[in-house]
Structure formats: C-alpha cells, structure tokens
Amino acid sequence: MRTVAAVIALVACVHAGIWALTRTELQAPDVDVQLDSVSYAPFEGSTSPDEGARARAARIRADLKMLAPLTHTIRLYSSTGGVELVPAIAAEFGLNVTVGAWIDKHQDRNEREIAAAIDLARRHSNVKAVIVGNETIFRGEQTVPELIKKIQRVKRATSVPVSTGEIWHVWLEHPELVSQVDFIAAHVLPYWEGLPASQAAEQAVLIYDKLRQAYPGKRIVIAEFGWPSAGYNMHAAVPGREAQAAVLRNFVSRAEAYGIEYNIIEAVDQPWKTFEGGVGPYWGLFDAARHPKFAWSGPITDPDHWRLAGMAILISVLLSLPILAMRGVTARQAGLMAGGANVVGAWATALFAYWNGHYFVPGAAFALGLGTALLIPLVVIALARIEEIAVIAFGRRPRRLITTPLTLGAAAAFAPKVSIHVPAYCEPPDMLRQTLDAVARLDYPNYECVVVINNTPDPALWRPVEEHCRKLGPRFKFVRADVLSGYKAGALRLALEHTASDVEIVGVIDADYVVHPDWLKDLVPAFRDPTVGLVQAPQDHRDGARSLAHYAMNGEYAGFFDIGMVQRNEYNAIIAHGTMCLVRRAALEMAGNWSSDTICEDTDLGLTLLELGWQAHYTNRRYGHGLLPDGFEAYKNQRHRWAYGGFQIIRKHWRRFLPGGSRLTRDQKREFALGWLNWLGAETLGVAVAVLNILWVPVVAFLGIAVPDRILTVPILASFAVSLAHVLTLYRLRVDGRAGRLIGAIIAAMSLQWTVARAVGYGLIKDRLPFVRTAKGGSRRHADFPAFWEAVLASLLLIGAVVLIETNYKEVREIDIFAAVLVIQSLPFIAAVGLALLERARLNDFAYWRRLEARLALRLARRARSALVGEATASVAIEPRDPAKQL
Predict the structure, then answer these.
(1) Fewest CB atoms less than 10 Å from the CB: which of 49, 147, 526, 659?
(2) Do residues 453 and 424 make contact, with C-beta atoms less than 8 angstroms apart?
(3) What are the E-state strand segments in 362-446?
C-alpha cells in the first residue's frame, strides 16, 4: 500500500507541476493615470432594458463611487429607463458624463430618448457631450440623412458637443456624416475584426491615424475600445482575463502617449447582453459582482489559478483513494489509474471555473446542467475503462480463471451425474443432429441428455431429431411440447422435470453447439467445492470464416469472452450465458428454477445464484462452438433481446443491490453496476447525445447562439479516445493481435449502438417483449434494409458537421470541435450501415477474395514468366556468333 500511496502522491505532484507550468504571466505597461472615459450601463442581472429593466439610484451611486477613482468621465447609451438619474449622482463624485440617446427603428422611443438627452444636457453642467445613436448606421436602423436630422436637432437644442457613435469604417464611408458632428466618435474593437490580442492596441493607433489623415483638423475620439474577458474566439481574437488586461493596459499607455481621447467599454459586465454572441456580457472592467478583473500595474496573472489548482489536485486525490482499497495493485497500474483520476479532477475544476466565470440565463443554465448530467456517466465509464486497461496491461494475472492443467484426470475421482439440456424451437434437424452427435462423443462416464422440442408443430423439424435420439441410445431423452409457455426458460424447466433424480449437475447448450469431448471431464471437477454453483465456458462459433461480416461478428463476441468475462471472474461476478454453462442442481432449485419474467433467463439465474452466495467460475478455453447469427439483422435482434433482457434484470434486481438486500459483495455490486452502465448506459447516452446534438445544430449554425463550450464537447472526444485505446490495447493483449480481426470487432461492436439504445428505450416504456429467436443455420430472412435508422442518424450527423463548418464564418473553435463531435458520433451508425451493405455485396464472400487472390497470383506469375522469357531472348540476341557453329 505504501508503494501505491507513493505513486498516487507522485502523480498528484506531476499534476501540480503541470499547473505550475501552465501558469501564464504577461507583461504590459503599468497604468497610473485616470482613464479618459468608461462606458457605463447601470442595469443589473439578466433582464435587458427592452424587457423592462430599470436602473436603481442605490446601484448607480455604489457603482459611480467605485468608478470615480478610475476615470474622469462615464459614457451613457440611453437617457431613459432610470439612466436619467446618472448625471446628478455622477456630480456627487466629480464625474463628467457623456449622455447617450438610444436610436433605433421605433420612432416613439427615439423621440423620448432625444428629448431626455436634451433635457439632461441642459440641466446638468457635468454633461460634456451628447452621443445621438450607437452604431445605428452600422445596424441599418437609420439612414445617414435620418440620423443627421436628429443630430442637428440636438445640436440646436444644446450647447455641448454632439456626435454619434459608429464603427470606424462607417466614418470613412460617410464624410457627409463627419461634416455634421462636432467630433468623430469612432468605435475600434479589434476583437470583432478577428485580430489577436497582441495587435489590438496597434490596430487602434493605426485606425486613429487613418481617420486623422482622412479628416485633418477634426476632433477624433476613440469612443469604444475594449476586449472581452470570456466567450468564444473570433478568428484569431481569443477572449480571456489576462488578454483583456494586457490589451487595455497596452492601449491606454499608447493612447496617453499619443494624446488620443478614448473611452473604454465598459465599466461593469452586463449579463443581459446575450444578443452580442458569446462575448457580449464580458467586456467589463469589473464583473457583475463588482469585483475588479485585473490590476492596472504589475505582472498580469490569473488570480484564481492556484485556487483552481488546489481544487483540481484535491478532487484528483479523492478520486484516487479507491486505488488504495484494491488488492494486489502494481505501481504502473496505480500510476495509470491515478493519471485518469487527475484528468477527471482537472476537468471537474474546469467545469467549476466555467460555471463560476460565466453568466447564465435559465435556458443556458439548464443546457449546461443537462450536458453535465449526460457527461458524468461517460466520465465514470471512461475511468472504468482506464482501470481495466491498467489491470490487464500492468496488473497481476488472473487467479480465479479455470485452467485445464489443474483439472486433467480429476474426473476419475469425481464424476457426479450430469444432465445436459438442449432446448430447441423450430431448429433445422441437421444442425441438431450435429449437436447431439457431439454430446454422444463426450469423454465423461456419467451423463444424460434431455432434448426438449417446444412449440414446433412441423413433424419435418422434430421427427428426425426424435429418431436420432432413439438411435443414440438410452442416455438421450426426447421431450416434445407443442404448446409451452415461458420461452426458453419454459423449455429448460420442462427439461428439469425429465431429469434423472440422481443428477447433481445440469449442463445447458444451445441447439447449434458442437461441444468438445473433454468439456465435462475438465470442468465438472470444479464442483468438488460445495460452494460452487455455476461454471461457465465461453461462447464461440465455427462459422466465423463464412463471410467478412461473420468474421467481424465473431471477433466482437471474442472480445467480451476473453476480456470482460475474465476480469469479472476475478470478483466472482461473471454473467451466466445459456449455453456452455454448468449449474449445480441444488443451486438451481434454491434459485427457484429458470425464470420467465425476463427474456434473459440465463443471466437472471446467474445473478440470482450470486445473490444467494454461490461461487461462479469461468474458463476462457473454448469447449464448444455454435453458429453465428445468419446476418446483420439477426445479429441485431439477438443483441436487442440481450439488452432488453438486461434492462429487465436491472428492474428486477436493483433492490438486492441495496445494503442488506442480498449476499452480494461490494466488488460484485460494483462489477455489475459498471457493466450495466458501460453497456446499456454508454450506448443509450451515445444515441441520446447524438440526437440532442442534431437538434442543436440549426441553433448554432443559423442563430449563432448557445454554442456548446469545449468543457462539454472535449470530454466526448476524450471518452471516444479512451474507448478506442481500451479496445486496441486489451484486444491485442487478450484476444488477437491481427489487425483485420481487431478492426472487424470494433466495427461490429460500434454497429450495435442504436440497437442497444432502442432496447433500453423499450425497457423504459414496456414491461415485456416477446422472445425473438436468433436466426441461425441458414434460416435468414432478408429485411428491406436492417440499418435504416442508423443510416438516417449517420446522414444527419454528417450533414450537421458540414453545415457547422460551412457556416462557421467567424472560425469559432468551439464550433469546429462541435463538428468533430458530430463526426465521431456518426461512426457507430456508419459502422451499422457498412455491415448492412457489406453482407449484400460480393465483397462479403471470402470466396470472392480467394478468387481475386488467385487471379492476382496468376497475373504475377505471367509477368514473372514474361520477364524470364524477355531476359532469355535478350541474352540470345547479344550472344556473339561462333564461326565454328556457323560452319
């Protein structure tokens, strides 16, 4: 444990070192003078003035007291809605005011604004200028002649300078507007031009010089300059608190040195400015709680950096503590697991910082909460997969796995009677005969075989089996039930009724399984331990070389039986399967026999046995081979049944996972809970998030709002990367290193995401579904297209990704990441479509590839022969003539 604790501490130290290395410290000139002017909007909260927000005198007074040491002047944008209180209160603190009249398309409001602005300019001596309209030409809400009339009206009614606020290029484009104002109030906002923070101050000076050259002698004021402290990037312009501090300090220093009049936007963050994209609320020098965002002197650093670092390391250490409780953990194993915990700790801290550093309207808060709720299970799954990688790659070898050398020759000393049950429903007789012949060849002295043909009225299907059982001898019992309820569980219950009274062990195999002669001889001795209730051998298939699609399917099955089952066996938490399993009869009867209240009676029984305290053992050696589903449709139907049955089992057994509900150990509960989450939860969440993202694409692409932040999208990409590393690493270590089989297994596994999610959906709304037999043995039925809905989802996701990229004119990085997420989310659906198309193509047939290989070999042989003939001809052509031979 000391070694593990030391490793956890070392990883935490590395984490702390990364925080130290990523701490930025920018340099910018100190500013020790009062600012010329600062924009001020006295509204609070997320309610905009258009929605009825009004400024309060108490709020204005507190704000202006805070701003008085910082600036000479404040600029307003409106003269109504409570803003008219500002000039009088500003006078209390010696502040000058630039009054604003908000101008838009609403003439009534325009009249009120102009009248109020004129009144304020007349009544208050600290009003030094009036700005009529703010970017009204740029927004297209007034024509230049219309705006000029309003400016002239204010000029006639007041004695202070009058102008209008516009983007700098509007002044260059409209010299007629310049001639009508007392000064040029130019807005220079390098962020909206997509310039990096390092060029912002220089851009302002260049624009100022350009305006001076265009209008020599005209008074020019940079009426808006600023930089957002949060939000999304605009081309190369990246918001940030440190960037904001550096930009403003550089600009103010340059402006003071050049004698440029300027106004900084703005005093306080305005959370209601969500209409200005992701950065609208974050232009303030103070946040909404009136805390300064940065200092005007000294190095520029993030004041919250070390606080967040401490939080991240604390969360990481807490997530790493369960490693100390694990048995037999190696140093490398602990290091990888602690590394995963520290990544999650850093993400949790970033999530907190995002929540703490942004303003949320109810809809945005709900979206963040929903996204976080959907991500937490994915993070748990990713940690579980990292743990499995660590255990298999760096941990100790499996200790509970049954290996053949431990049991060879033990059957002579321990050979309890075994009854092998073979349930069959409408199965091909030839296939069943193969199965029974293999049972007859078992190298075990004391067994019987009960064949139950249920709900199969066609004599052509059951009579040949009956005759074959008679031929095989008295060990084989043939039982037929034309009307039998309970599906496969009903057939197994009937088989148990016809089982000999002296049978101690019950074996179950599917009708398509050909068992090896040493199956019972090798595995029955495990029951010498009276606490053992179940011994499970893996499923495998003898027709994996039937086609490329079957090859991929078989590889996917092998991954579960050689990886997941082996690891679960270490905690006595295997999943029982209804073929190649051996069950102690006493345990079966204690569990209440096979149950029909779920359609996965085998898994249901296995979990019940564990809940009763029985031991279960597993071997990954193949003792039998069956048939794969006939095609992709049958493959999906089988997995749909398993997933729906798994959900039924959760609903049936969840109370037994509560404290005192059963004899399950903590490790067993953990393995089953993570297994269900990893399988049912991950696939369902994957589909749910994909559908939500499809619905969200138009909002992002065409409205330009609610762009998912990277704090929500990057974890999806990271989760996919962990899953990919999980299967690549473990498949090579435990199953097969061949690239072709690995790729096929990955494609087959991904292709089932929609199927599993659909089964869980049915589990949420339906208590029961009919048992669907998996088509095997050549009984495939051709559907129209077995991956129709997967094709629809894949198309929508890919179209959404293209739309996002094509409409991302601002080159927002979060949108590019969002598009990448959509592409990643489309891969499972593309895999399903690919398998569905493959099984209908000539490429699916291995014979096609063998013929192609033969043709290529023949072509290469012909080329080689031609080359040899050419060389021989050339050697003859250049051989010198021998006069003696000529004679």
Answers:
(1) 659
(2) yes
(3) 418-424
Whole-angstrom Cα distance, residue 539 to residue 495?
22
Backbone angles phi, psi at 328, to 5 degrees: 65, 35
Cβ within 8 Å of residue 836, ≥6 positions away: 632, 785, 786, 787, 790
Confidence of residue 765 (pLDDT cuts 50, 70, 90): confident
Tell me whether strands 447-454 and 261-264 are parallel, antiparallel or unpaired.
Answer: unpaired
Mean pLDDT, range 659-667, rounded to an integer? 94
Q: What pTM, to 2 d.p., does this model score? A: 0.89
Q: Is the pLDDT of residue 179 over 60?
A: yes
Burial class (CB within 10 angstroms; exposed 0-12, middle 13-18, buried 19+) of 427: buried
Q: Kindly report the average pLDDT of the chain as a whole number.
A: 91
Q: How many other C-beta atoms are found inside a 10 Å radius of the C-beta of residue 66?
A: 16
Q: CB of 690 within 8 A of CB of 824?
A: no
What three-state secondary structure class fits 661?
A: coil
pLDDT for the residue 46:
80
Tell me the residue ranges of DSSP E strands in 595-746: 615-618, 624-625
Q: How crowded is residue 298: how many other Cβ atoms within 10 Å of its Cβ?
A: 10
DSSP classification of residue 302: -
Average pLDDT score over residue span 433-457: 95
Q: Which are the contacts of 749, defined by CB distance < 8 A and separation ≥ 6?
A: 556, 559, 727
Helix (H) or strand (E) run with residue 449 in it: strand 447-454
pLDDT exceeds cutoff 90 at 278: no
- Antiparallel, parallel or unpaired: β 127-134 and 162-167: parallel
Look at residues 284, 229, 243 and name the one whose alpha carbon lies nearest to residue 38. 284
Q: Tokens 């108490």 appear where?
A: 58
Q: State how far the alpha carbon of 425 is from the alpha carbons of 480, 490, 639, 771, in Å.
A: 10, 11, 19, 11
Percentage of residues in the chain having pLDDT higher than 90? 80
Q: Return phi, psi of residue 618, to 5°.
A: -135, 145
Distance CA(549)–CA(708), nearest Å, equals 37
Does residue 880 carry a pLDDT above 80? no
> What distances in angstroms separate CA 201 from CA 25, 209, 264, 634, one per listed residue?
19, 13, 12, 66
Q: How far apart are CA 196 and CA 227, in angstroms?
A: 11
- Extended beta strands in 514-659, E state: 514-515, 532-536, 581-584, 615-618, 624-625
CB atoms within 10 A of CB 430: 11
For residue 732, pLDDT over 60 is answered with yes
In terms of Cα–Cα distance, which of 219, 134, 218, 194 is closest to 170?
A: 134
pLDDT band at 409 (very low <50, low <70, confident <90, very high): very low
Instruction: Give, in degrees to the nearest 5, the angle at Cα 703 between 700 and 704.
Output: 55
Residues 6+ apart with CB under 8 A from 363: 706
Residue whose entry in the numeric block shows the structure tokens 């609403």:
106
- Residue 593 corresponds to which tokens in the numbers above? 């026999």
Helix (H) or strand (E) holding 128: strand 127-134
Q: Return all residues near 531 (Cβ < 8 A) that are at least 6 apart.
A: 613, 614, 615
Q: Which amino acid is at 808?
A: N
Phi, psi at residue 771, to the nearest 5°? -70, 125
The end-to-end CA distance of the chain, in Å, is 98
Long-range contacts of 469-473 (CB under 8 A, 24+ apart): 469/436, 472/436, 472/437, 472/440, 473/440
For residue 638, give Cα distances in angstroms to 259, 606, 715, 759, 847: 78, 19, 31, 11, 27
Answer for the pair 268, 285: CB distance below 8 angstroms, yes or no: yes
